[in-house]
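Researcher: Let's try something more involved. This one mixes different molecule types, so please make sure each is placed in the same coordinate frame as the others.
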Amino acid sequence: MLANLNSFFIFVAPKILKNTFEKMTFNIIVLAKQVPDTRNVGKDAMKADGTVNRAALPAIFNPEDLNALEQALGIKDQFPGSKITVLTMGPVRAAEILREGLFRGSDDGVLLTDRAFAGSDTLATSYALSMAIRKIGNFDLILAGRQAIDGDTAQVGPQVAEKMGISQVTYVEEIQKIDSKKIRVKRRLDNGVEIVESPLPVLITVNNSARPCRPRNAKLLQKYKHAKTITERQAENIDYIGLYSSRPYLNLTEWSAADVNSDPKLCGLAGSPTKVKKIENVVFQAKESKRLTDSDEEIDELMKELIRNHTIG
Amino acid sequence: MDNIFVYLEIEDGVVADVSLELLTKGRSLANQLGCKLEAVAVGDHLGTVEKQVFPYGVDVLHIFSDKRLSPYTTLPHASILVKLFQEEKPQIALLGATVVGRDLAPRVSSALRSGLTADCTSLEIGDHVDVKTKKVYKNLLYQIRPAFGGNIVAWIINPEHRPQMATVREGVMKKEIYDPQYRGEIVEHNVDEYVSDKDFVVSIIDRHVEKPKVNIKNASIIVSGGYGVGSKENFQLLYELADLLGGEVGASRAAVDAGFAEHERQIGQTGVTVRPKLYIACGISGQIQHIAGMQDSSIIISINSDPNAPIHNIADYVIVGEVENVIPKMIKYYKKNTK
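Model: All components are placed in one shared frame. Result:
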């Protein structure tokens, strides 16, 4: 009896497993944004009037979008053959983060770029992204960072989900399980955690408390370092033609507003319900402050004063 | 029509502070605009909600009671707000900038194609003239928030779309009883007219909610550290001083991002807003997004080795020096001269 069971597994199990693996691959879209690194505004990024010189800030892959990419890569590790497409909207330069994604293990990159998108608020952005997602077509899962560090709004993810008519799970720090029908995730609440199950397709936004993204892979770096969008290739005016026709994976997809069939009325400034009335560079009214050194006497004097006026003690 | 709506965040039948703060703000905006303040309660066991919210000046309380609506999941709450707002046409809708509010508000605003501004630090009413069309808009909601990593403050408006939606973090607005005797009207809605079975496809398998371990919001003394503190180890000095003074330890976003302190301790626009009696800012440069969360402290001491750090501009006492040098001196003096 035992022997029979064993042989059953030996002869039959591999076939079952193979079928399961063939079936279980996922098409994943990762939404990413290139952002100015506002976290460490150094002195060289400050103008004389005390405002920030945005052009001087390095442009980076939005940190939480990297957390999202890592979740996608984790699924691909588990289910080889899954396909990860990084989608970004921005200027031509934003293709940099598509290459960054390829260096870390994504399969494809799509840049959505057009002057018509300039001035988009979160709603117009999510509309444009949703149109690009429709053009990409087949997907099981959309992943995005919870929020981008240049705006911190956390709105684009849920708005894309609404536009696609799919469910959303935000503030996720771990994908625990995924199968062909549903996904189970752990999400962080204000004061606790929740384990949530959603059918696919779904849009998930990922927190920075999720595991960090793996580094660039040296082989992939070699493979993809010349990956370029059409505009980049034209701008550089180098004869790469042979290279790009013999290695099609080096052609990064670039779409305009018209390419994704977007309605101009819903794009850019025209498609943005919110308008910026004004921007202030806040200069704080200097208070009359006491200036002290860190000498023993002056610190003692300060502490004495705070105790005397009952601020402490 | 044209009233102000506040979505109530409710856990175990208790309305969250952030919602009461929004009702307080909503009441004063409603008085200014001459319109009503309406509140929306979606969940289960909502029996005491009316007692909790009417004293804040609520004119109409909308109740959506169904056991499937608690705990919160996105789709049914979104469906309810979308349909209710389509029927009632509010001019302003406010939600807490909590995990729930930041999950729900964008979904609703997308469905309604209304504008939404996250994490506002101030809400005001004012007019606007469009530069191109010269069209005049009366009584818009100015949604004011730091942006771009806290390096600027943006004034956002939604001239053409309603409702004008905004989220606000807990502690940013003050919570104040409007009239203990105030009574509004209760409208009980039939939940089935607002949700469909498809709204319940996402299920909560497990849920743990804990009381917050850190209570910096109500601390009267806060010793707060920034990136300039340099390391998690150096933060121990801050804990020592805070323990001694009976205070709590806070942190800037840069310090939290660097892993020096837990996220619960983050003070600023994207963290907690505090108004302690004493705020000691250690190695904090003073980006707007941090200052937005602590500028109402009664006394501010800034310790920073950079004599030009912006934080010094709002401090009552400025100590130009190294944190690891100054704090031990404060600890030493305090130990010697008290009790």
